[in-house]
Amino acid sequence: MFLIGIFGIIVLIYMAVRGLWNLIPWLIFAGFGYYSEKKELKEKVNEKDQNTQLSEQLLEEVVQKVTK
Fold it and tell me: How far apart are CA 15 and CA 6, in angstroms?
């Protein structure tokens, strides 16, 4: 009875490890997707900052021309 229990535990551990092994490609894919999405968001924020700077420069130029 004891040997059957140990064999059952070994089989369960093997199945769990094999199941986790099959998840590795999915985990890599999910990590890559998260990284690329985060990178795109960062690029959008940088683009927004550049647009904001251009808007501020244009506004300053307009104010200077109007006040002359």
Answer: 14
Tokens coding 46 = 């940088």
**Model pLDDT, residue 17:** 80
Whose CA is closest to 31, among 42, 20, 39? 39
The Cα diameter of the chain in Å comes to 98
**Nearest-angstrom CA–CA distance, 64 and 28:** 54
Q: Rounded distance, CA 35 to CA 40, Å?
A: 9
Residue type for position 16: A
User: pTM score, two decimals?
Assistant: 0.41
> How does pLDDT run across 11-51, given as a tens digit for each residue?
888 878 887 777 778 778 878 888 888 777 777 766 667 77
Cα end-to-end span (Å), the chain: 98
